[in-house]
Amino acid sequence: QVNGPDGILQNGAVDDNVAKTSQLLAELNFEEDEEDTYYTKDLPVHACSYCGIHDPACVVYCNTSKKWFCNGRGNTSGSHIVNHLVRAKCKEVTLHKDGPLGETVLECYNCGCRNVFLLGFIPAKADSVVVLLCRQPCASQSSLKDINWDSSQWQPLIQDRCFLSWLVKIPSEQEQLRARQITAQQINKLEELWKENPSATLEDLEKPGVDEEPQHVLLRYEDAYQYQNIFGPLVKLEADYDKKLKESQTQDNITVRWDLGLNKKRIAYFTLPKTDSDMRLMQGDEICLRYKGDLAPLWKGIGHVIKVPDSILYFYMFFFPLHSINMILFFPSFPYSRMQSALKTFAVDETSVSGYIYHKLLGHEVEDVIIKCQLPKRFTAQGLPDLNHSQVYAVKTVLQRPLSLIQGPPGTGKTVTSATIVYHLARQGNGPVLVCAPSNIAVDQLTEKIHQTGLKVVRLCAKSREAIDSPVSFLALHNQIRNMDSMPELQKLQQLKDETGELSSADEKRYRALKRTAERELLMNADVICCTCVGAGDPRLAKMQFRSILIDESTQATEPECMVPVVLGAKQVRTLG
């Protein structure tokens, strides 16, 4: 028995009171508990992939990603559906079948365009209906004047980063507060995760390893191994992202016009759509054209872009499709593999750079070094404009320093200064000077300036760019080989290959051997070799050592990119930007 406030209670009475209290507590409706479980319970298939809102009138289906999203903003600046379309680069949507407008694919009434960012509506003058039309060209066509539509009333379907509320209902404030709360940062991570795992959910972001941050770069490093261990993963992350981006860029159903070039190689001409395509081609890009139609067996060909938007492809077959061709952009892995190789060389090869540059690059405190050299009496180089006082000071200082940086805004004569520095370095007779820049355009401009000084200049370009014309094509290694009079056998084989398109296996083997010999001879006898930073990792330069290296526009390159030329034995490095 138990003593209670009203006297002694028997054990049975205690049990009855406990049971009644438990029943009363169970009947209480706690709003917080309901809200906590409302969006953690099993949701329908059409629930918003971000927040879980599943009102059929509020959600939209993305035709590309096969996911549903609501028209509510939540904690973001735009609606969830618009956020997804922008981040995932999708454009086509469908309304829910149980919504006010039924299962409707949003498309232009006139041309069938489904890009929702181009779609808008025009109210009909007589009827209480609206017509969906794309901005260009349908909404601006003069023929609309003959129809019962007022083109001046055209309005976009997406305004203020949301679909219009009469088209897709905006969830109420209470619904959005009760929904799963998701931040813009979580949305970014989830979109990235979907690229690898389309079925991933918000809960997967909490798994270990998903959100691991790479190590931050340092101002000072203990040694080259720590330098490699920090920059190596960063290069890999960039390579993985670039690969994912390149391989996602495809274009279907393009029309191709074929022609035969003077070198007996097939040339494909085609035009990419300007509005619906995210593909951006550049000269030298490697692409694959593929045909999967019913008119012929499966066909594909690989080539390089020689002129935007045209491409050159190499084929040895008789069938060349014209229509229904798919285009795939290939990912060039060699720039990143060359950066990784340079980082490894820097770590393991003590002869890759001088001791001074090694410690300076790692941020160590090193006493300044003055290089003893014979300074010219006149600093202005032959064939170049006269230098002003600041340019003369820059050239004089750089020639006496093992590591230097020249900075200046555009138009201050950095290119002329660079060419002058290279001219005086080449005149010192310490072997070829390696001149690099992150872009081919910058390399070509500097090559042209250096050539004006009368030095023997060789422009080394990637084999994929040998068919691309430039102002300094006559200085390119492959073109200089064609004009070598000292190797008549190579000239004959080259002429035969140009006329027939190919050589026998024996002739091809001999041709390659002679070409390698000619390349080595030209490179060893050059005063200056010009290439991109990544191009400095070309196998043709692998066995060469460069005492003097100049990197133009260095501030536009990444640090591992600049390391590719630096590890070729640099004892003097000049950077400009």
TrEMBL record:
InterPro entries: DNA2/NAM7-like, DNA2/NAM7_AAA_11, P-loop_NTPase, UPF1_1B_dom, UPF1_CH/ZBD
Record's keyword terms, sorted: ATP-binding, Cytoplasm, Helicase, Hydrolase, Membrane, Metal-binding, Nucleotide-binding, Transmembrane, Transmembrane helix, Zinc, Zinc-finger
Gene3D superfamilies in the cross-refs: 2.40.30.230, 6.10.140.1240, P-loop containing nucleotide triphosphate hydrolases (3.40.50.300)
Gene Ontology process terms (BP): nuclear-transcribed mRNA catabolic process, nonsense-mediated decay
Region (C4): 108-138
GO MF, one example: hydrolase activity
Gene Ontology cellular-component annotations: cytoplasm
Major place of residence: cytoplasm
Pfam families recorded: AAA_11, UPF1_1B_dom, UPF1_Zn_bind
Residue ranges constituting the Upf1 domain according to the UniProt record: 40-197
Top-rank lineage group of the source organism: Eukaryota
Localization terms from the record: Cytoplasm
Ranges for region C3H: 48-80
Membrane-spanning ranges: 313-334
Ranges where the record places region CC/SHH/C: 62-90
Family: Belongs to the DNA2/NAM7 helicase family.
Name of protein: RENT1 protein
Organism: Turnix velox
Name of the coding gene: Upf1
